[in-house]
Records
---
Amino acid sequence: MVAESVDLETRAERAESRRGLLIGLPTYLYLILFFAVPLVIVLVYSFATRTRTGSTALSDWNLDSWARVFQGPALEVSIRSLILAAVTTLLSLVLSYPFAYWIATRPARLRAILLVLVMIPFWSNFLVRTYAMKFLMGSEGPLSLISQLFGGPPVRILFTQWAVLIGLVYGYMPFMILPLYAALERMDWSLVEAARDLYASGWTAFRKVTLPLSMPGVVAGSVLVFIPALGAYVTPAILGGGRTPLLGDYIVQQFLQARNWPYGAALSMAVMVVMLIATVFYFRKGGRTL
Amino acid sequence: MNEGTATRPLVDRLLAAHGWLVYLFFYAPIVVLTVFSFNDNSRVGVWTRPSLRWYGEMFRNDDIMRAIRNTLIVAAVSTVVSVVLGTAAAISMERFRFRGQRAMDGLLYLPIIIPDVTMAVMMLLFFVQAFDLLEGFTGIRLNLGLGTISLAHIAFNISYVAVVVRARLAGMDPHLTEAAADLYATPWQTFRRVTLPLIMPGVAGGALLALTLSLDDVVVTSFVTGPGSTTLPVYVFGLVRREVSPLINAVSTAMLLASILLVGVSLGFQRRSGARQGPSDEDEGDANDATTPMVGHLGRVGADAGGM
Amino acid sequence: MSRPAVELVGITKRFGDVVAVDDLDLTVGDGEFFSLLGPSGCGKTTTLRMIAGFEYPTEGTLKIHGEEMGLRPPNERPVNTVFQSYALFPHMTVADNVAFGLQMRKVPSAEIEARVKRVLDQVQLRHRADAKPSQLSGGQRQRVALARALVNEPEVLLLDEPLGALDLKLRQNMQVELKELQNRVGITFIYVTHDQEEALTMSDRIGVMDEGKLLQVGTPEEIYEGPRSRFVADFIGDINLITATVSGPDRVRLGNGQEIEVRSPGPVGEEVTLALRPERLELYDLDEPMPENHTKLRGKVIRRMYYGDAYFYDVEVGLDHPLEVKEENRPDVETYDMGEETVVCWDPAAVNVVTD
């Protein structure tokens, strides 16, 4: 009697778990075929050899491509990209925090409107927004015109690192604003009042209460800006003119121009690993609470 | 207290000034571009008079028209398929427990985390390899084209849809499905009558996200595109790298308009579904609804991050 | 009790290592109002969920009207549930919510309409038929949840703390309404609650649960007057628990050495716990005449609390804890001040010996 009942519960659970797997099965199969398998193929390619004609020989397995990832031009490009991504993140944070704080402390009705105003550029086509920046900054563009109208020199900022930086901040800042806003909006403001009640000045209350409580938003926003900024391809290609390559265009070059697929594969794997580490850091540091 | 009342307005004013400057930073390039797209002059920097000349050029340009057609096909196909697959995966993840779930969970998150460039490389190498194999076995040679672009877009869109729908599912009272079952509904009836209507805003948000990502994608598409299957973003990207031209201004403005239209549609949809839920705490609801798709877009911010 | 409505035999439910329900035997009669009472986490809700079919027992058998339920899913069981959170479908109107179960069972739509109207009349919500749940007050939602279950005329109605989210006044009104409703429709109610007052006022019988075990089953009077264990005594109402040692037939020795009379306390030498309701104790002046064969303990009032309808006194009598005494607020009952010397007095029949 009892033995049969034990069977019942497990049978029920098994049927339920079969149903769960079945519902998701087409998706999982799709992702295995069109994502997991490709990932493995890239990994395999990174150990292959480039022939003289530029094709890839899936034989003579070696670590040459991986060795090149940590030397010479790749290292230089990586460091430049890392610095640029870090500066982009920092600049976005400094600009976004007061902005998100401001929105979060507005009355509900105004807040909704202000948020929609953030959403519109956020949802707008990224390529077009980057192009708009290029148009604005060009030597024949409106900024230049205005400068010359007042007797100044034409603006020569396009195709410099500065243009790329501005473009990246412009492109990815919403990724910073939204988690910051979410963290601040969710905050219990009576905590700040409690701090004030306990003799903290406005600034101290911010430093000791608001800032620590919004930390998950800071971490989330930073990772969300850092990751795409590090792998950026479109922005440097348009605003940097490809003069000083960053990781994104450097990898693309290996496939579309240099035709060194094993090297490109190794590079793209390396970038992915860096991003996975950043993501794990994010989940460890409060990504959970958001 | 005195110091408090004295500094408060100043801090507020500074914050407000900063806020409006940020909006200026966001909108100035877009607005300027839009204005100049109506400039008659073929030199971009010189304003002569307003005209629709470049929009006319755009509609007469066969390459652009073909690219638009390709883009819409890919976006439609990849959105529909990824919404179905992503929603199914979300339900399977959120509502069931099965062996291998953690591995599948990771697989579901990875496409969001992975950089565009890596994704592009993966897709290229996969299709090249798969087509080589296929030719070896069957003698049929397949080529890169709209099919491969769609398959690649679905591969990254599924995850975004799943994240948005999962957030919605997680916020749903689990007793609702139990109540339906208690009231004699079969699992399928429960899904049709209760679960699906309630997660619909999430499904719609996921669809919008998938559509936007598909319409935006340059990097992955440019790796798996074939002759004649160029999409609009890839085509525009090719032009934009080299030059600034009034024609691109017009095309860009048209693309912007499409994006903003999509946002408008989604906001309208959410407002309506919010209204249907009743008038209580509408203000709060609006603000939150507005952020839902975003939080989805950020993907990694998903509430169920614990699964990683 | 003709045919039992629900029978649980040896039901155990484990979640991993946690035993939520431990070897539970229970029979609920047809038409009975049965309450499962216990603190949160005692397994009462899990028991209810197993009857509804949301969980399957790890061990044991479960029958509804003599039919074994086995792996039958909730939608094929002749029971309906009123959820604690009500679980009203937020995207449907009140009428659609109520009609849901009938629609699922393919009842003809004309009949559905009639039955929905009738049940909405019963719960006085006909005028809110087209409202959405979010537009209703807590009490109204509660009544919709009830109507949604009742309209199906289930053989057994399961209620999971249905009044928990309501405020006190409303809760008291609903207690009366629920009991009357049950009398009227004659359906078996199984009612889960942690509120002893709810259980006492409405139930025909109560089962008290703790840590997955069913400790005692009985009528409200049996449970309140004759708790068999320390837990049941303590959980239901206020009570004085006194440790004592059995010193003879019908006699125990208290901590302060005094011997008092207790009916059949157990074998001599055993340590027992005596349970005494505060309202069964009386206070007397030292020189006042007292009932002859009542137990008397001399002590001093160390706290007095005013409850409106009664006074509660803490009287220090030289035991581990002071004794709590409740005296009704009537003109003929004398009040005592802090520090006043007094005698606590009770009928030996009022003492209950409970196990630990």
---
Amino acid sequence: MTWLSLNWPHVIDLARAHLLLSVPAILLSVVIAVPVGRLAYRHPRVGGPLLGAASLLYAIPALPLLIVIPALLGTPLRSATTMIVALTVYGVALLVRTAADAFTAVDDHTRGAAVAVGHSPLAVFWQVDLPLAFPVLLSGVRVVTVSTIGLVTIGALIGVSSLGTLLTDGFQRSIPAEVTTGVIATVLLALLLDGLLLLTGRVAAPWTRAARPARGTAVTA
Amino acid sequence: MIEFEQVTKTYPGGSVAVEGFSLVVPSHRTVALVGSSGSGKTTLLRMVNRMVEPTSGRVLIDDQDVQDRDPVELRRSIGYVLQAGGLLPHRTVLDNVATVLRLNHVTRQAARARAAEMLERVGLDPALGSRYPGQLSGGQQQRVGVARALVPDPNILLMDEPFGAVDPIVRRELQDELARLQTELGKTIVFVTHDVDEAFRLGDEVVVLRERAAIAQQGTPSDILAAPADEFVHDFVGAGRAERVLHTQTIGGRLVAVDGTGLPVGVLES
């Protein structure tokens, strides 16, 4: 605790850096994976191989990926951009299949009815498919979020500051308290974001909790 | 007026759902298409709002080929009611009813006001408006489905086995309600069902279909019941069924109608 009491401004700074790396990566993962998942659902023949390939991305080891990205994109090796791209690759790999499943799970009867009463294809996507896929999508995003928060720490190995810096620095200088702080702070950050997402789901999808009639208030036709 | 002109629907793989079907549905009348599953009746219905495109032939609404209309605009101009309501589970009842108005860019407030009015009209407590469809009974959902179809005040109402998913008592209530609404509104209704009694109760005209939407008989319910065209129609409408064969007995000086099982079903008035 002494270590933390002396270094907490540093920890706060690193936590902020941690968020600045993970939040854009999570958002980018969603923005990329949702359309790809939707494409895979609409065109299963293209979708099957696409989902397979996307999932395989997760098998790429982190350190080689952090070297390949600058080589391919011309971004500086030890930069936030490189890190965010790498995290997005993993996020997309985790999320595409869930996204495809989320759209598959939308009831065809409901979708058909929406078309029949006059929703344009665009309106079907925004007003029917997306909101109904939302609960499943959100569960996928929660997994990506927790995973991304954990993965950000690897950046410390190539010199991109985050809470992971506490781990590398603590190991090198043999300060167990610093390492422990790094682990706990990372876990807390993951829990915090996960909690926020859970809350978002509650607020944004109220129908999922209203599926059954409240006791004593049912009115017969 | 809706006209089917020699429409045929062949699905890829060669299965024929509808073959050379022609029919005129006069304005402000209810025509019930009745047939067993596989008779192509739903396919016919869905050709009217271009959910299904005919392989050949034409469907005309007021002498205009639906093929010349934009499908989305066409669907918004036609009321569509389907089994189990087909409601959007993530929208409140009120917003479900207001859907088509909102798609037609009516302001939210105006759309909701008209939706609330329509809920009352179909016999629902407007307080149900803030519920989600999942919180309603089957019969209530079905009424919401009817309200949603009626709220933009379309000339045409397409009903695809709308009361198939509710129990017989509620079904009867809904049929009576629809009949009442129709006397007030006078829509042009195409009603698809496999239930002959429902077709007879609601149809000004009934079209009995066999496979591939071949018309076995077309006429008023009494025409069909009095003179079934053939064995198929006779069996399908149950003309030989005990409860359809009535005779009279004089009991206590009054004429009592008795069905084929010996059950008295009513008293004849002179």
